[in-house]
Amino acid sequence: MTVRHDSWKEYIRNRRNGHSILSNENELIELIQNETTRNNRDNISRTIAYQDYFFRMKDIHWSFLASMVSRNAGYNMTDLKQINFKNGLSEKQRKQLFLTYERANWIIFQDAFPQLLIFEYSMINNNPLFYLLKYFSVSSFMEIEWEKYWTDRDKVRLVFSLIINEQNMIEKPVIQDPYFKNEVFDSLSFKLQEQLKLSSVVFPTLTGELYGLPISQFQELTKRIQIGKQLYSILFKKDLTNHFIDFAKSKVHTGSRSDYEEIIGISKSNNPKLRDVYPMIPHRRNSEFDWYDQKKIELEWYKSEEYLSEYNYKETFLIKQEVMVSLLKMKSFFQ
């Protein structure tokens, strides 16, 4: 059977209407592979795919978290095309940073999206098929966690498990990879940004507010997991979630910070739209290793993380942006 690239939503629509268009598991595997490849082309397609999935499957909170963090990855990518970054960083440095964002996000999507689709298929057919995850090189850790979720519907634990999995997924091929380690993470510019906590993830609202937190100690696995849980605590804070959802529904992701800057009342950074300045980058998995075979799950990875201070992050974010611009103008720090 030849599966059309746009056939996942068609299948879902037909199945919800009581019709089945798949006759065996091989067709399902091919369908999911095609859908994952089609949506893993670039930051824009990933963000939209995560978001669309959440709007279909509202209980899978991680997918909305992934979409909003993916928006920020796009903002960071197009930041590199700003005049200040062009003047402050060499073309090589900017390309290396772009590839770091791109590679990490490609790996996460390639691993996570088949998980989401298999759960959706299992729900529609009322039959868990998580044993199929191995055909997508998904860690046995997540097969166990999806089975748990099927029986106990613990939404928070599933979010934490997916965060733990994604950060372990990028640990070896990105964080510890000699190229990214030497050229990016050990560079003076990255270390200075880390020390000053200048990088941020932000969640805008249509009411003009900005929420988020600074990102630091990115090379530390447990810290990245902690940050993911803190971002989740902000995004799904009871009185804020609907504001973030309204923003996501209203603003199509372009990768440019102009998607939210005028709304929250800050001066435009003049970021371009991502697809106007970046090509689609071909990727392939370097290995099919299962990180769970080599790692022990730390108890603190499942500890809840509340980011209680600075929920309204606009003022802090603007100060950090000003500091970043000032440092970029001091080229000697980055050469």
Descriptive overview:
The protein has 335 residues and is mostly helical. It has one domain (40-333). 59% of the residues lie in helices and 4% in strands. It has helices spanning 7-16, 25-39, 43-56, 61-79, 83-88, 91-125, 140-152, 155-175, 178-185, 188-196, 221-235, 241-250, 261-264, 274-277, 314-329; strands at residues 199-204, 210-215. A two-stranded antiparallel ribbon has the order 1-2. It starts with 6 loop residues before the first helix and ends in a 6-residue tail after the last helix.
Overview in brief:
With 335 residues, the protein is mostly helical. 59% of the residues lie in helices and 4% in strands.
What attributes does this structure have?
two-stranded antiparallel sheet, 335 residues, mainly alpha, globular
Task: Describe the secondary structure blueprint for this structure.
Layout: H1 7-16, H2 25-39, H3 43-56, H4 61-79, H5 83-88, H6 91-125, H7 140-152, H8 155-175, H9 178-185, H10 188-196, E1 199-204, E2 210-215, H11 221-235, H12 241-250, H13 261-264, H14 274-277, H15 314-329
Antiparallel strand pairs: 1-2
Helix pairs in contact: 2-6, 3-4, 3-6, 4-6, 6-8, 7-8, 8-11
